[in-house]
TrEMBL record:
Protein known as: BTB domain-containing protein
UniProt xrefs under Gene3D superfamilies: 1.25.40.420, Potassium Channel Kv1.1, Chain A (3.30.710.10)
One Pfam family per UniProt: BTB
Recorded metabolic or biological pathway in which this protein acts: Protein modification; protein ubiquitination
Amino acid sequence: MHTGYGIKFRATLTSDHATDVSMALTCRVRDQPGPSPAVTSSGALRNRQGEDVVFVSGTVLADPRYVKDGSIVVECVIATVVKVRDAGAANALPPTISAAAPSADLHEHFGELLRSQKGSDVTFLVAGEHITAHKCVLAARSLVFMAELLGDNDMSEWENATSQHVEIKDMEADVFRALVKFIYTDTLPELDDEDEDATTLARHLLAAADRYGMGRLKLLCEDKMCAHISVGTAAAALGLAEKHGCPKLKARCMEFIVADPADLQAVVATDGYRHLMATCPSVLSDLLLASVQRARSS
């Protein structure tokens, strides 16, 4: 930038990341015999701010030693020091780039072990169907299976035993198969929200989970049933919740039944409600109390 008095240079910090930089700017005009005296400016720069250095006066520009063919040669040296705010960050090593770890696939390997039946050492007879599995996997996931399959024997005794056959009573084969699959893979079968058979499977699977001490599976089935309470299923689900200790499901069923007098009358007329009266008469007292409290609050 030219003025009536000389030439001014400006150093400006344009980085979006550095916020505190110490700078020393040295400028001089070159000539044939030797350079002109240096003019130095030092200061701290902030983002988008500049530091000016006025180093050439009008008399210097008129000197033929510095002006050649109407031009001059200027030498500029800029030294900068970035201030480090965190001493720990100053000594930190640069971040390394590493490949992301693959997602866990343990359930897939156990699922393949169940599918292949390799090394299976127990066969269950369930509703006329044979279902094979591995005693060590079942015992590791269920204390009930551990007691039934291993008993008080130590590892060496049951490892050398021949394939064992166990009959499972009062359970459908597809329910037991879903139970065993969950034990191996920790995943539920596909339960279509609109499929009545899926809702029935969830109900029976909840009972199986309670029978074999599978707490996580029981909670998952309970959540599934809570999301699909209807006039036709409310009474049966309430009886199931009372029998197997599912407080969340019980509360959801009672809330649905007493919320609307029309729904209450419809539920009372179902076979499920009559079965509830015969098998769980105590829950009717809770239902009556909930109905009274609902009427008082409305």
